[in-house]
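note to self: dont lose this again. the chain is below, predicted strucutre after it. 345 aa total, dont forget to put it in the shared folder this time
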Amino acid sequence: MKSNNQSIKNVNLISKDILESIPNKPRIPLYNYLLHLTSRSDGKERSIYMNKVDPFIKGVWDEIVKENYRKLNVREFIPEELGVSTGVFYAYKNGRKRISIQMLYKILHLWEGYCNKSKKDVNKKWDEIFENEYTFSVSAYYAKTKLPRYITPKLSYLVGWLVGDGHFNDKGNHYLVKISEKSTGQLKYILKPLFKKSFNVETPIFKRFKGGYAIQIGSKPIYRFLTQVLKIKVGKIPEIVWRMDKINKKYFLLGIFDSEGCVHSGRFRLSFAQADRSFLEKIKTIFEKEFDIHFNGPTFHKTKLGEWYTIKVDSKREVLKFYNKFGSCHIDKLQKLYEMVKRID
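---
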């Protein structure tokens, strides 16, 4: 019993070190993506709602009333212009009711028209809202979610993992982001805390029917952020990666390696496998141009199980470079990589 407790303590210590090794900077600012969280299919009770934006609503409304008090009939104006009752609008203004992104933008355009504001004024105010502290939800009963306003190495690592082996599902008004993984330690001590830090959500761990474990998030704001703002697709390099600095690219690649890469036993070899040849070619290019690490391939494979490609490092020199420049943020792969390097020395 004593040895088991000691083992758990060691794992916790290692995972804490791994988490702390992923920096919070550099930070790459994201554009104002609020409208990119919306869709034409959104309607009542299907939209993404914002909380804690009532100071902005009150500010623009007070200005509208001040500029137009002689000709403004509030009881008629609000239903005609916004399509909601006066009571609902005042609940928005007083912070008693969450407001959809679309409705907030509509109010801002009323401010533009009735207060003689320019497009520049509207964009500035919209950016002020984006930079403010707020949360997202889809109904009064769902947890309030925060979304990142910067790309950081921690988020880059999650993006790489999702690109390598994530799962996205959108059925009707149900949204799912899932990561499957054999290592419960990796899910519990690395990925779960990273999701918490990035999105302020708890990610329960499930045992999969076919074996292994998974964490999953049923959040529409997070789903829309990942797929419509960052434009993540499994097995595809998002455009934002090409604009990343070197450190963020490093952790993006580490996310892919930890999700899909392999540290081979009995030989000095590291490899990536994917069905898409062009994906591996792009990964290989980033490693070579940015980090001077050279992979061989892609090599084609065909068996009864299917067809795929691999790129691999299979020299002591390149393995050492990979270990010194990258290492791993995976509890199990880091240990295997360390044991491999010890044999080289």
